[in-house]
Structures are given as C-alpha cells and as structure tokens.
Predict the structure.
Amino acid sequence: MEDNKNTITALKKAHSHLGRVIKMAEEKEYCINILQQNLAVIGLLKSANSKILEGHLNSCFQNAMRGTNEKRKKEMIEEILVINKLSK
C-alpha cells in the first residue's frame, strides 16, 4: 500500500511539474531551462514507472507464476516483454 502512495505522489509531482514546463514553453523561456525542467518531469515519470512495474512483478506477475495456468504465465511474460520494449 505504501508503494502505491509513493507512486501516486511521484505521478502528481510529475503532473504539477509538467504544468510549469508548459507555462515556460508558452512564455518562450530559454530553451535550455525548458529542456532541464522537462528532463526532471521525465525522471519523475520514469521513477513512477519503475515503482508500478516493481509492484506488478511482486504481485500480479508473482501470483501468475505460482499458478498452474500455463497460458496465463505466457501472457504475463509477453506483457513484460512488451513493456520492456516500450520503455527503451
């Protein structure tokens, strides 16, 4: 449960920060400053993504791997592989 709170906090921070980045772009602030702040948002989102993935691996994925449904196991592995590709 604590991990979920941390994930939501990271997502809310990214959301709030992104609003500031958009305002900076609208106000035509210095490009490098916008880029730096945008990278901070990306970092927050990557952190949240890692927390979500870790939670999934420690719950849904782990439960599926303990089960006897081979089709579901294969689906879960495929899902992780797709997510891995998308994260590159």
Q: What stands out?
A: The first helix runs from residue 2 to 26.
